[in-house]
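Need residues for this backbone.
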């Protein structure tokens, strides 16, 4: 994990990506966000920890053009089906102000994407969509402003 803030612990709860797994139908996505931590008593804040949990809240299979010989820009053959995915990333940031008072900031970041399904997908069976967090980058812009980038893998399970 990239971390340009001092002494931050980043905890990812929920699904963690398995390094030895063969992900066949998947998409890697980037979810950037800009967060302002408000504190009327002081301006010097120190982030202690960030907890992140991602989940898929809705998915839908769509019919698309198919071509088993033409490869699209994502280097996948057009099977005739893709799944649209909507989800949310829940995050809790714990930070300490100059008076050593611990505060928390909670936010939910929506995301959406789609995955082109493989040619041999069996639509008569239930298709499970899942997400795992691969990496989180956190950068202090000012004492109150944080830029973060969350890299996630959305896949058909």
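Answer:
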């Amino acid at each position: 994990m990239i971390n340009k803030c001092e002494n931050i612990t980043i905890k990812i709860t929920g699904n963690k990506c398995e390094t030895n797994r063969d992900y066949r139908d998947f998409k890697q996505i980037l979810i950037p966000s800009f967060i302002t931590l408000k504190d009327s008593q002081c301006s010097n804040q120190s982030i202690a920890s960030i907890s992140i949990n991602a989940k898929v809240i809705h998915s839908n299979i769509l019919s698309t053009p198919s071509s088993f010989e033409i490869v699209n820009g994502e280097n996948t053959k057009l099977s005739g089906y893709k799944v649209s995915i909507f989800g949310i990333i829940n995050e809790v940031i714990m930070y300490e102000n100059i008076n050593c008072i611990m505060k928390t900031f909670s936010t939910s970041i929506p995301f959406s994407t789609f995955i082109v399904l493989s040619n041999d997908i069996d639509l008569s069976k239930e298709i499970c969509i899942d997400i795992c967090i691969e990496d989180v980058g956190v950068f202090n812009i000012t004492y109150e402003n944080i830029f973060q980038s969350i890299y996630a893998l959305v896949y058909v399970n």
